[in-house]
Amino acid sequence: MPITRKKRLSITIALICSGVAGSAQASGFRVPEGSIAGMGLANAMVANPNESGALVYNPAAMAFQPGKTLNTGIIMIDPTNEVTNTAGNTEANGKSRFWKPNFYYMDHINSQWSWGLNVGAPYGLETKWPQGTFPLYSNPSFPQPGTAGAEPKKSAIEMVNVNPNISFKVNPDTSVAFGVDYYYVNNVNLNTQAVVIEGDGDAWGWNFAVMHKTGPVTLGLSYRSSVDTDIDGSVSVPSAGLSGGASTSVEFPATLQLGIHYQVNTKLAVEFDYDRTDWSSFDTISVVHTNPAVPNPVNSANKWSDSDAFRFGVTYDLDSVNRLRFGYSYDKTPVSDVYFSARVPDADRQLFSIGYRRDMGGWELDAGYMYVKVDDRNINQPTFGGPDTASNGFANGNYESYVHLFGLGFSMTF
C-alpha cells in the first residue's frame, strides 16, 4: 500500500501524541503510597521513627526499629476521569482499577548497622479514552488534516522498584542510610486510535536518607535520584500495514522529602512533611523508530515544572492495641495549560485519608482509605499547531477526576 503525504502526516502526529503518559494519585504519574500506614497518614511519614511503615519513606528509620521487621500490604487504586468535550458530551475514562503491593524487610547486622529490602511501585498509571472523546482530532477545518488516528486511546506504565538499603547509626539519636534503586519497567503502552506502541526497559538510581531524634521531636530527610530508563519495543499502525521497532527513554524524576515528627504525649503524635518532585526533568520525549515512512526521530514536548506537596499526619492511640491515623495532603500539578495532555488530565489535588492499626499479638493489622479530590480543570487553548498536538487545543474540555484507594496489610517484628 503506498503511503500518501496525508497518511504520513497523520502517522507522524499520532506518534507525537503517543509520547506522553497518564495521571496517578499524586502529581504527574507518581504513586507515593509506600505502605498502608503511610497511606493512612497521607504519606506524612518521612520523620516517623516508630512505625515499620515508615521504612519505605525513610530507610534511616531502620536504626530505630526494635528487631527484624516485615511490613507488607496491598492497595487497590480506583481512579475516575471524566471530560466534557467541545461538543458538550461527557466521556468517562474506562475503569482502570489496579493493585499496588508493597514489601519491606529489615534486620540489624549489629548495634550500628542495619540492612533492608524495599520492593514497590513508586510510579504507574493506566488511562483509557473511548474513540470520539476528543472530536477536534477529526475536524477537517483545523490545520492538521487526518489526525483522528492521533486521538489518545490507552496509556499505561507498569514498573517495579527493587531497593536494597543499608543504614548506619551514627549515635543513639542519629542515623543515615544509603541504597540503590533498580527500576524495571515491564510495560509501557502508549496507544492512539491508530498507533500501538509497546515496550519495556530497566535502569539504576540511588537514594540517601537521614533521621535525627531530639527529645519528642524527630527530623527526617529522604532523597531519591532521577532514573533515566531506556525503553525498547515496537510501533505498529495496523490500518496502514506498518510495523517496526521503536525506542525512547522515560526519566523518572528525583524526589526530596523533609519532615518533622512531634510526639505530643504517649497517645498523640503529629507530623508535617514537605515533598518536592523534580518533574522539570520530564521535558521532551524522543521516539526513535525503524519506519521509513515517518520522520525520525519524533519528538514530543512536555515541559513540566517541578512540583510541591505539603503533607500532614496524625496518629492517636486509643489504647495499647488500637491506633487511629488521619492525614491530609495538598499536591501541586506540574502540568501547565499550554502543555496539558488528555493522557495526563492532571491538576492540583487534595488527599484525605484515614487508617487503623490493631495489635493482634505477635503481629499488627493495618487498614487504610484515601480519597483524592482533583481540582476541576478547564482547558481552552486557542492553538492547534504546537510542538505536541496532545498538549494544545485538540484536548480542550472540562476535566473532572477523583480517586479512591483502599489498603490492607500487616507487619511483624521478631
Explain what you see.
Residues 1-23, 140-148 and 385-391 have low confidence and may be disordered. The protein is built from 2 helices and 20 strands. It starts with a helix and ends with a strand. A 14-stranded antiparallel β-barrel has the order 1-3-4-6-7-8-9-12-13-16-17-18-19-20. It has one domain (5-413): Outer membrane protein transport protein (OMPP1/FadL/TodX) (Porin). It is mainly beta. The longest helix has 13 residues, at 5-17. Strand 6 (152-171) and strand 7 form a beta hairpin.
List the helices and strands and how they pair.
Blueprint (H helix, E strand, L loop, with lengths): L4 H13 L18 H5 L28 E17 L4 E3 L5 E11 L4 E8 L4 E4 L23 E20 L2 E19 L3 E19 L2 E8 L2 E11 L4 E11 L2 E9 L4 E10 L6 E6 L8 E4 L5 E11 L4 E10 L17 E11 L4 E16 L17 E17 L1
Antiparallel strand pairs: 1-2, 1-3, 1-20, 3-4, 4-6, 5-6, 6-7, 7-8, 8-9, 8-10, 9-12, 10-11, 11-14, 12-13, 13-16, 14-15, 16-17, 17-18, 18-19, 19-20
Keywords:
414 residues, Porin, 14-stranded antiparallel β-barrel, 2 helices
CATH class: Mainly Beta
Radius of gyration based on Cα positions? 23 Å
Estimate the helix proportion, in percent: under 10%
Query: What low-confidence regions span 5 or more consecutive residues with pLDDT below 50?
Result: 1-23, 140-148, 385-391
Strand order of the largest sheet: 1-3-4-6-7-8-9-12-13-16-17-18-19-20
Q: Strand-and-helix sequence, N→C?
A: HHEEEEEEEEEEEEEEEEEEEE
Mean pLDDT: 84
Q: Report the major sheet.
A: 14 strands, antiparallel, barrel
Number of helices: 2
CATH topology: Porin
Number of domains: 1
Coarse shape: globular
The CATH superfamily bears the name: Outer membrane protein transport protein (OMPP1/FadL/TodX)
The secondary structure category is: mainly beta
Percentage beta strand: over 45%
Distance between the first and last residues' Cα: 67 Å
